[in-house]
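Side project, low priority. Logging it here so it doesn't get lost.
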Amino acid sequence: MAYIYPNFKTKKAAKEAIAKGEKIICKDNTPWGHPRLSDGMATVEGPHYPEPHRWYGKVTLKDGQVIKLV
């Protein structure tokens, strides 16, 4: 799973920010670090640990920025 930044409390808030064109990035959540993802698709969850995850989704990335959240 990956996280999007900034840390959105709800999926609705994240979708609204994407629609406004705000800069949103995605980083992979692994034990070996948090590499930034650049192009393609990723599965995301939020809000970030240590808060309990309340939403999940798939993002489309282009040039290092989230352009779509489903």
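Brief comment: The longest strand covers residues 55-62.
Revisit when time allows.
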